Amino acid sequence: MDIDNWDEIRTAYHVARLGTVSGAADALGVHHATVIRHVDALEDRLGVKLFQRHARGYTPTEAGEELLRVAQVTADQFSQLAGRLRGRGAAMTGDLTVTTVDSLTPLLVPVLSGFQAEHPELTLRLMADSRLYRLEYGEAHVAVRAGSQPDEPDNIVQRLYTLRYALYASSGYVAAHGRLGEDMSAHFYVGPSDEEHRAPFNRWLKANTPSDRVGFRASDARAQVEAVIAGAGIGFVPVWWAERLPGLEQMRPPQAEWDVPLWLVTHVDLHRTAKVQALTTRLKDAAKEWP
C-alpha cells in the first residue's frame, strides 16, 4: 500500500462511516460508480472483503471495522494539521475559537466582544458547553477551564483567575426560613445533580449537609444559580455573579477551600500566533479587573 491508494482508503472509510455508497459519494463529491470502483479495487488489492453488501447498504466486516479505526485516526490527524495551519501567521483574520463552560460566559463575553470589535476581520467563535474541546486537534485556539490544572501534553497552561464562592439565598427565602445558623439541617439547599461532583464547594456541601435537605438539584451551574434566585434553597454562587444580583443575601462568606482556579490554555503550536497572543493578553488584563 502506498500513497497512490489513499483515495481508495478514503472512499472505503466514508462507506464504512455512512453505510451506503450514495452517502459516501455525496460526502466525497463523486459519482457512486467511482465509490464502488474504489472499494472493489481496494478489496482486490488487500485480498479481503471489507464490506457485506445488502439491500440497505454496506456493513463493514471485521476487516472493514479495522480499516475504519485506522482511517479515523488518520482523519483526526489531518484535522489537527489543518487546525494548526489555519492558526499560523501574523494575520488578525479568520476564525478564533474560544472554549469554556457555560457559567463563565458572563465574565468572558464582554472581553471577547470588545476584542472582536477591535479586530473586525476576525470571526470569534465561543464554544460554551461541558465538552472538552481538543486543542491538539485544532478544535479551538484558546480554552478557559475551571478546576484542576490541565495537564494535556503540548498545551501551555497559565493561571488566569480564582473564582471565589459563597453561600447565598434569595431575600424571599430568608424571609420565609431565616438566615443560616450553625445547624445546617434547619435549611434547604440547591446542589448539583451529580452528588459526587468534584468542585470543592460541592464536596463541602455533601460533607456538611444532610442529603435529604438538598431539595433542588441541577446539572448546570447557571440553573443552580437560577434556583437560588427563585428561592429553592441556599446554594453556592460565584461572588462576582452574586454582586450583579441584588435579590441575593450572603449566608456564609467565601472560604479558601471553596475557591476554584481558572486556567488559560493554548496549544504550543498556536500559542505564538498573533491572534492567540493578542487574545490571551487581553484576557489576562481583563482578569486583573474582575471582582
UniProtKB/TrEMBL annotation:
Record-given protein name: LysR family transcriptional regulator
Record-linked InterPro entries: LysR-type_TF_proteobact-type, LysR_HTH_N, LysR_subst-bd, WH-like_DNA-bd_sf, WH_DNA-bd_sf
Pfam family, one: HTH_1
Domain of life: Bacteria
Keyword vocabulary terms for this entry: DNA-binding, Transcription, Transcription regulation
Signal peptide: none
One GO molecular-function entry: DNA-binding transcription factor activity
Family per record: Belongs to the LysR transcriptional regulatory family.
Span of domain HTH lysR-type: 4-61
Protein source organism: Rhodovulum kholense
